[in-house]
Amino acid sequence: MTGRRKLIAGNWKMNGLKAQLGEVSAIGELAAGRPDIDVALFLPATLISAAAPLAGTVLVGGQDCHQEEAGAFTGCISAPMLLGAGAGGTLVGHSERRTYQHETNADVAAKAARASQHGLEVVLCVGETLDTREQGDEAAHGWVVDQLLASLPEGAGSGWLTIAYEPVWAIGTGKVATPAQIAAMHGALRDALVEALGADGQAMRILYGGSVSGDNAADILHLDNVDGALVGGASLSAAKFAPIIAAA
Ligand SMILES: O=C(CO)COP(=O)(O)O
């Protein structure tokens, strides 16, 4: 036993209208049946205030927050706004934001620090592209460890921060990393966290994400140093999310 509670988290990305709120209630019911694990849903900001009262014990979060407290940043959402809408957490550094919004490691660290100042739980995402993976496992480990260390906020702590390893080539592609690839990367990330944070690095959760489904969840969730999953497509419906929660 590691002492780390499993976290099964869904990321709805740019999906979800009010008509889908029934899925949040249904996922809340699934979570009520598993008090031994944590369940979270990272929803579009437009749904947070309506979803929070329906979610039961599920932590409802945003998918990004701006590093500044407030100001002239049209279209952006601040940590206090997420909190005010009823969120208990946020993702930062998802590869889609690193790619399409050009977020840097320094941005990601600043976003995480700001979110934690406001008491939000944070899931910080890292992961390599196919080009990097094709340079070999050692190169991929080194690259992702460097990305993690450069994205870690000041005062990183296992009480509020979770890491998610999401290989970019496995996101939305149906190409899940092999159990051996996942175990090796999570081991490398664990070693880096322990070196950077000591005992707290041992206590910090590391999730896997990338084409997780009911079919592969059990094989992934029982690997050493895999403390849960960050699930995209299969979190959009309670029916598809249920077997992943059951596998935890
Ligand atoms: O990016 C992901 C979760 O943040 C993974 O998405 P998929 O599960 O759809 O591959």
Provide structural commentary.
The mean pLDDT is 97. The protein has an eight-stranded parallel barrel, surrounded by six helices. It has a single domain (7-247), classed as TIM Barrel. 42% of the residues lie in helices and 15% in strands. The chain starts with 6 loop residues before the first strand and ends with a helix. By secondary structure, the protein is of the alpha/beta class. The longest helix is centred in the C-terminal third of the chain and has 19 residues, at 179-197. The protein is globular, with a radius of gyration of 17 Å. Residues 11, 94, 166, 171-172, 209-212, 230-234 line the site of 1,3-dihydroxyacetonephosphate.
Which key phrases capture this entry?
248 residues; alpha/beta; TIM Barrel; eight-stranded parallel β-barrel; 11 helices; globular; binds 1,3-dihydroxyacetonephosphate
What is the overall shape?
globular
CATH superfamily: Aldolase class I
Helix and strand run: EHEHEHEHHEHHEHHEHEH
* CATH class assignment: Alpha Beta
The distinct bound ligands, ions and cofactors come out as: 1,3-dihydroxyacetonephosphate
Given as residue ranges, the uncertain stretches (5+ residues, pLDDT < 50) are none
Which structural class fits the helix and strand makeup? Answer: alpha/beta
CATH architecture: Alpha-Beta Barrel
Characterize the biggest β-sheet.
8 strands, parallel, barrel
In what range is the share of β-strand residues? Answer: 5-15%
How many helical elements? 11
Gap between N and C termini: 14 Å
How much helix, percentage-wise, in residues?
Answer: 40-55%
InterPro entries: Aldolase_TIM, TIM_sf, TrioseP_Isoase_bac/euk, Triosephosphate_isomerase, Triosephosphate_isomerase_AS
Catalytic activity: D-glyceraldehyde 3-phosphate = dihydroxyacetone phosphate; L-erythrulose 1-phosphate = D-erythrulose 4-phosphate
Pathway: Carbohydrate metabolism; erythritol degradation; Carbohydrate degradation; glycolysis; D-glyceraldehyde 3-phosphate from glycerone phosphate: step 1/1; Carbohydrate biosynthesis; gluconeogenesis
Subcellular location: Cytoplasm
